[in-house]
Amino acid sequence: MPVGYRFVIHSGDTVEALGAIPLRDDDEARLFGTGVIRDLMVNAAPRYSAFTMDIIHGERAVASIPFGPAG
Question: What is the pTM of this model?
């Protein structure tokens, strides 16, 4: 059984594993991930604007969310 949802951000050759957290379901994982993206974009938009966040549960890809420009 998977320990939790894993969150990885990447852009080109740069990959950062943010960690894992047990969450209730895929919807909660997506909501958590978008909150992390929002926080990163507030604090470091120029660095992260070209990144994408992958959310993984076990071996299953749950979502791939592009950061996009700060809004």
Answer: 0.90
